[in-house]
């Protein structure tokens, strides 16, 4: 019995390169972090994990990432909808600008946001008379996270919207279905997995964001100090074991969140395949 020829040559070589790349770039760093965490004494691990300042930084990072991901999911859906279904002057420019956070260094983004929202900045001066302060507050952290992660949602949802079958929507319109019913019954089930993926990418990226936040957050302990900054402080103080513990807890948060996101995506796809 002869084996079927593979349509694409170089299977073994490409697979080997891919596996080696994943091993070197992803698996080995995680294993190194886990091994370093195992070497920490349980008492020290618990003390570092339950430190009040560290717990506060976890809460700031998680809350900020959650707020940014939720806002990005709504705003990203609207932007993807506009870019997919409407034609207007400057549409292509807007589409290009959405990719700017991918290419822009995060430190440059942080400096730009700090200047824009500071007390003497353009937007900072506009909201100052109302008693609103954006720079060096939790609001500034969320804005920085939104700026960096908004394209993730748009680029996840936009292709799905472009591939929607318009005939079902037209049939629903002929049956006098209301727009919100069409969206809830026909469109939302189709784009829900992409929305969940965009939310997850936005949350995960925001959780680990550092460069754009440190310039606008103020870095006040218990208020605007994020966990990546806490890790940096510990590394600068040569407290490597302490930094390892904090990083390991963040890694556990990330793994748990990724598991939940994949479970929700699979559930949404299953319901999409079962329901007519």
From TrEMBL:
ABC transmembrane type-1 domain: residues covered: 58-261
GO cellular component: plasma membrane
Transmembrane segments: 15-38, 58-84, 96-118, 130-154, 239-264
Source domain of life: Bacteria
Bilayer topology term: Multi-pass membrane protein
Cellular compartment(s): Membrane
Alphabetized GO MF terms: ABC-type sulfate transporter activity
Gene3D superfamilies associated with the record: MetI-like
Keywords noted in UniProt: Membrane, Sulfate transport, Transmembrane, Transmembrane helix, Transport
InterPro entries (UniProt xref): CysT_permease (IPR011865), MetI-like (IPR000515), MetI-like_sf (IPR035906), Sulph_transpt2 (IPR005667)
Function: Part of the ABC transporter complex CysAWTP (TC 3.A.1.6.1) involved in sulfate/thiosulfate import. Probably responsible for the translocation of the substrate across the membrane. Part of the ABC transporter complex (TC 3.A.1.6.1) involved in sulfate/thiosulfate import.
Recorded family membership: Belongs to the binding-protein-dependent transport system permease family. CysTW subfamily.
PANTHER family: SULFATE TRANSPORT SYSTEM PERMEASE PROTEIN, SULFATE TRANSPORT SYSTEM PERMEASE PROTEIN CYST
Assembly and oligomerization: The complex is composed of two ATP-binding proteins (CysA), two transmembrane proteins (CysT and CysW) and a solute-binding protein (CysP).
This protein's name: Sulfate transport system permease protein CysT
Species per Swiss-Prot/TrEMBL record: Loigolactobacillus bifermentans DSM 20003
